UniProtKB/TrEMBL annotation:
Lineage start: Bacteria, Bacillati, Bacillota, Bacilli, Bacillales
The enzyme's E.C. designation: 2.5.1.16
Function per UniProt: Catalyzes the irreversible transfer of a propylamine group from the amino donor S-adenosylmethioninamine (decarboxy-AdoMet) to putrescine (1,4-diaminobutane) to yield spermidine.
UniProt subunit comment: Homodimer or homotetramer.
Pfam families, per database record: Spermine_synt_N, Spermine_synth
Binding, spermidine: 102, 171-174
Active site: 171 (proton acceptor)
Binding site for S-methyl-5'-thioadenosine: 47, 122, 153-154, 178
Keyword Transferase on entry: yes
Protein name: Polyamine aminopropyltransferase
Domain of life: Bacteria
Annotated PROSITE patterns: PABS_1, PABS_2
Catalyzed chemical reaction(s): S-adenosyl 3-(methylsulfanyl)propylamine + putrescine = S-methyl-5'-thioadenosine + spermidine + H(+)
Keyword Ubl conjugation in record: no
């Protein structure tokens, strides 16, 4: 796609003849990426959707000007949000993914042959179509018949569901716009109800560095509902602060398996990462202890 001066898509600018994306969603921090090419740029009903080819991170999905996932580091997040919770539920049959429009979490989840159904409820069909077509490094060639795409608001989708799923993954964007309600106590209560009696959920719970308030609130909300809660982290270079958190809420005890079932074609998660990702830095452990 050509990008001549005044015809640039939003969120992009030229600097000395070079094309840049600047994330502009924070008051005191702006992160910029030098861009080779605009692959796709269109507004959807919910947000502005772009696939950009960047110099350092390869192709990236950008929603409302904020980088969501990239060819270079997307696997870290997508493997962590899928393989880690699945290790605690080896008998799981039905999985629900809420959000996850880049398809990376669904792609990883589909690696488990024992799963019978993977429902993916994404509000924005345009994100899924753009990622399938233009971001294959993340979305893969996802055509597994067990993956059912539902284009709907995840908040609405879980309302009134009872004991349907073994594992629910909340792979949401930041808590603004359509994703805001995916961080609310009412939504978590509906997720709790939609899980079977021994089910578990996981959500991305934001940056422990920049959004400790959101992580603490999420942890507190989930702990009010679930008897077993664990927070774990990974470093995802394109997320502000690098260090990122995930929170598991579980109705079943979170017993560490003697042997994991992590597939051998992962790029980030392996047995060692699974066992160490729950070791929390001192500041984070004490922040959660007082919750
Ligand atoms: N890994 C990424 C991160 O943490 O920034 C985000 C993964 S994915 C791209 C997030 C998806 O959640 C987006 O495609 C967005 O359209 C979707 N989403 C936001 N609000 C939603 C809602 N209420 N129901 C379903 N999907 C939603």
């Amino acid at each position: 796609m050509k990008h001549e001066g005044n015809a640039l898509p939003p969120y992009l600018h030229m600097d000395n003849g070079e094309l840049w994306l600047t994330e502009d969603d924070r008051d005191n921090l702006k992160i910029s990426y030098r861009i080779k090419e605009v692959i796709f740029a269109e507004p959807s009903e919910y947000q502005h959707v772009m696939i950009l080819d960047s110099y350092d991170f390869g192709r990236m999905l950008v929603l409302d000007g904020v980088v969501q996932t990239t060819s270079i580091d997307g696997h870290i997040y997508n493997e962590m949000i899928s393989h880690v919770p699945l290790q605690f539920h080896p008998e799981a049959k039905r999985v629900l993914i809420i959000g996850g429009g880049d398809c990376g979490a669904a792609r990883e989840t589909a690696k488990y042959a024992h799963l019978e159904a993977i429902d993916m409820v994404e509000i924005d069909e345009k994100v899924v179509r753009a990622c399938k077509e233009h971001l294959p490094a993340v979305s893969g060639n996802l055509s597994d018949p067990r993956v059912r795409f539902v284009y709907d608001d995840g908040v609405k989708f879980v309302q009134g569901k009872e004991s349907v799923y073994d594992v629910i993954m909340i792979d949401s964007s930041d808590p603004v716009g359509p994703a805001e309600a995916l961080f609310s106590p009412e939504f978590y209560a509906n997720v709790h109800r939609a899980l079977k009696a021994d089910g578990l959920m996981v959500c991305q719970s934001q940056s422990p560095i920049f959004h400790l308030d959101i992580l603490k609130r999420t942890y507190r909300n989930i702990r009010e509902l679930f008897p077993h809660v664990l927070v774990y982290t990974a470093v995802v270079p394109t997320y502000p602060g690098g260090l990122w958190s995930f929170t598991i809420g579980s109705k079943r005890p979170l017993d560490f398996p003697v042997q994991t079932t992590i597939p051998n074609d992962t790029k980030y998660v392996n047995d060692g990462i699974f066992r160490q990702c729950f070791a929390l830095p001192a500041f984070l452990r004490s922040a959660l202890e007082v919750e």
